[in-house]
Amino acid sequence: MSQITNSANIIIRAAKATNTAVVLVGHVTKEGSIAGPKVLEHLVDVVLQFEGDRYGGFKLLRAVKNRYGSTADIALFEMIHDGLKHVENPSAQLLEERGQEDGSVILATMEGNRPLLVEIQALVTPSHFGYPKRTASGFDLNRLNVLIAVLERRTKLKLSESDVFVNVVGGLKLQDPAADLAVCMAIASAAAERRLDEKLVVFGEVGLGGEVRSSRMSAQRTKEAKKLGFTGAIAPVARPVDPFIRPVADLKSALITYLTGKGK
Predict the structure, then answer these.
(1) How far apart are CA 13 and CA 115, in angstroms?
(2) Full-prediction pTM beyond 0.90?
(3) How many Å apart are CA 200 and CA 211, to the nearest integer?
(4) CB 86 within 8 A of CB 178
(5) Strand duo 194-195 + 114-126: pairing
(6) Domain spans in the chain, listed from the N-terminal domain onward
(7) Measured on CA atoms in the order 97, 101, 103, 106, is the torsion positive or negative?
(8) Is cis: bond before 240, omega within 30 of 0?
(9) Do strands 232-235 and 200-202 pair parallel, antiparallel, or not at all (unpaired)?
């Protein structure tokens, strides 16, 4: 630890004396945090984390610490043949290969202060083993298990003998609580083989009682959806009232009202 402290102090003093920007690269653990004590993070002015799937998808540059600005903003990049390229309209790129099958729902999510439209895919198949399998890519597996339990209890949807697979398209890792409703509707859509209207986006946090709770920055989410040609949002009641939002109070009413189109 003393070596880290002294080395970083020498580099910082040299940077300030010569008015030079310096980038220090630290080792990152499997959990995604900087390895070792927090000394290096305390010494520097800005801590940036570069996240994303190493084999594809978008790369996110996220500020963990910033003495000169906000830590709520992110930058999105994609790797092309001649290096990293900034993504100008990530929502459009994430949706350009969207399918029209059941189990597909568009989520209006927030990455920091940036609204994104992301496709949530779900697949529900009969389990051939004694214990049903639950797999999530880009979504917390423990949260998925909770949402499946809420679906079974509050909507009477039978999933105890089915394998459930959930995927967030584009390699993103969602941490937004408002993804709950979209994940639930994607699972229900796949299980019932019924499609959601392709011009609707979804967001909202789901409680253990099946209620749909309000989400932060709903205005930014709906603005992004309108920009890409969507006609409505299935979401909790907004204050002030937004005619773009089709309010739902609980999970059961959302499924009954909007999962109407028979899948292909």
Answers:
(1) 39
(2) no
(3) 20
(4) no
(5) unpaired
(6) 2-89, 92-262
(7) positive
(8) yes
(9) parallel
* CA-based R_g, the chain, Å: 21
- Amino acid of residue 52: G
Please write the tens of the pLDDT for every residue from 152-182: 999 888 898 899 999 998 778 888 999 999 9
Whether the CA torsion 33, 36, 37, 38 is positive or negative: it is negative
Structure tokens at 229: 């040609």
CATH of 92-262, one of 3.30.230.10, 3.40.50.2300, 3.40.50.970, 3.40.190.10: 3.30.230.10
Q: What does the alpha-carbon distance between residue 18 and residue 38 come to, in Å, rounded to a whole number? A: 26
Backbone angles phi, psi at 90, to 5 degrees: -65, -35
Give me 94's structure tokens: 């994430």
How far CA 151 is from CA of 20, 123, 147, 242, 249, in Å, comes to 56, 15, 6, 27, 15
